[in-house]
Amino acid sequence: MSAQRKHAATVTTTDHRPIRDRLADAVAGAVARVAAEQGLELVVDPSTVHLERPARREHGDWSTNIAMVTAKRAGTNPRALATSVVEVLERSLPAHVVSVELAGPGFVNFRLDDGWLHEAMAAVLAEGEDGYARPDIGHGERVQVEFISANPTGPIHVGNGWWGSYGDALARVLARSGHVVSREYYVNDTGGQIRTLGMSLLARAQGADVPEGGYQGQYVTDLAAEYDGPDDVTAAGRWAADRILDKIKATLASVGIVFDEWYSQASIEESGAVDETVALLEAKGLVYEQDGATWFRSEQLGDVRDRVLRKANGDATYLAGDLAYHRDKFLVRGFDRVIDVFGADHHGQVASLMAGVEALGVDPGRLEVKLGQMVSLVDGDETVKMGKRAGNAIDLDTVISDIGPDATRILSLMSSLDQAATFDLASVREQSAENPVFYVQMASARIGGVGRKAAERGVARAPLAEVDLSLLTHPRELEVLRCLEELPEVVADAAVDRAPTKVTTWVRKLASNFHGFYHDCPILADDVDPALAQARLWLVEASRIGLAIGLGLLGVSAPEAM
RNA sequence: GCCCCUGUAGCUCAGCGGAUAGAGCGUCGCCCUCCGGAGGCGAAAGCGCAGGUUCGAUUCCUGCCAGGGGCACCA
């Protein structure tokens, strides 16, 4: 114990940057030194030095492959170069570094004292839930994320819930990493499908069967019972679409998905923007008439074929509207970047959309289309049927009321968008023991429990300045700290890769580490040294912050009790 | 036929250029005088096949095989 106290001599460095940056500087400096001493042609920029946390602890706390990636360029071999780099680094060890060694094919491994983790913990506590893990990689870039955009012709399905959870979590991740984000839902409230919906509604209202190709679902019958508008298919369709859209909004809000903008396709057409867009393309010689229709020469812009913009009957196609819409996004509203999240069944539109955007003079690199693969549902051993036109399909709303909003979101964010995933409702249903949501939320509840128990026993957290964090030396404590230290990079990676799933993986890891700590490190037991108890209470608080940030990015609640 | 995505443990999924590939569930075996055992510890079990690039490939490239989704004057 007193031995632990000795470590308390806090290592104060004036350099508060992340340890990774400091090590990168040291490595780059060492390489420069080696190059100078040995006359090698070798210059490395610190920002290009790759540093990683080795999977195996015996390989140290940090590791760099610098010798392996530069040896050839320098005209030497990896192990020889690494040996020299190690020698130079040993002359003056960077802060917290206890030893540097050469390993394997030429890795340079760093072993650090625990102080770097205590520093990381102090940073978590100092910056808090709002400030920690807020890497500015966006530099204020204005990005719009358009997602779901399901047609308001029926309840939204589970796939929309998945892609919606993705789009929303991506928006959260981008917002946290220095982007100015706007969430948008494009409402397809015009065109043939609306008339089909109106026709289906009117048929039901008259007590007739819905004609072939119409919408058969019970919701149409229910809406028909309320309808007392005109006998016009378009009017009836719009009326029904409005009702359905309200329902969709409510469903999405129940899982924490809210949009900044619900953009109406009809409004675009009515504004004349579609005509203007077609005229713009025409002015560029990209439009021609054939068979009574107006065509876009998209093939010469990378599409597999040319596309119709205006049908022979005079109606604008979906593409024409979509191009006007994207022109509005980029050229009118001025987003720097647009990310469209589509279902894989809309893959066919991507090439023509890209071609059109480019033709309108927008750098196509500013438009990203993420395709969500199809999802299938399973309930234990049973396959669950989905599909809008089928009568008894399971829709998103049904799933949410079955397994709850948090489970719905975490389930959606456990697998990558590119993976055609199978979700098992049974694995996540309330009251079930084998539930990944509970595992994470249990950590949150335990954190709350510690707070309640501490209050019960009259134990208050001392001011952080009076607490000796260096008492945290138990492997379980250090594992939690290692995990917390990674969060800023996890957020950055998730943003850059457009992969909020990385946050899910991290949250589960933090929960696992916390459970291990909780299990092995008593906090409020009588035989725990009060100074250590204080440090552990603050570790619980740091964990709370990390968990709150992570779950917040996923849109999952962090309950204080369960 | 062409385009996109995917093939990792019995199942569902992580890992996306690094040194002995992870988790949950399932199977087998341990741990409750302890702040919530809805926990913790351990065991068995895996990168579709073949080439290539690289100091190094589950990860990148090509081909093949298998599965899913697209290729409308529908949205």
Describe this structure in words.
The protein has 562 residues and is α/β, with parallel strands linked by helices. The protein has 19 helices and 15 strands. It has helices spanning 2-6, 19-38, 66-74, 78-91, 115-131, 158-176, 192-205, 218-226, 233-254, 265-271, 273-283, 318-332, 350-359, 396-403, 405-412, 436-456, 475-496, 501-520, 530-554, and strands spanning 51-52, 62-64, 97-103, 107-112, 141-147, 179-187, 261-264, 287-290, 293-296, 307-310, 337-343, 367-372, 376-379, 382-384, 422-424. The strands form four sheets. Strands 7-6-5-11-12 form a five-stranded parallel beta sheet, with helices on both faces. A four-stranded antiparallel beta sheet has the order 1-2-4-3. A hairpin with a 2-residue loop joins strand 13 (376-379) and strand 14. It is globular. The model is unreliable at 1-12 (pLDDT under 50). It binds one RNA strand of 75 nucleotides through helix 3, helix 7, strand 9, strand 10 and helix 12.
Give the % helix: 40-55%
Q: Termini separation (Å)?
A: 36 Å
Q: Average the pLDDT over all residues and give the rounded result.
A: 91
Number of strands: 15
The proportion of strand residues reads 5-15%
Number of helical stretches of at least 4 residues: 19
Radius of gyration, in Å, reads 29 Å
Main β-sheet, in a few words? 5 strands, parallel
Outline the low-pLDDT stretches.
Answer: 1-12
Sheet with the most strands: spatial strand order = 7-6-5-11-12
- Overall geometric form: globular
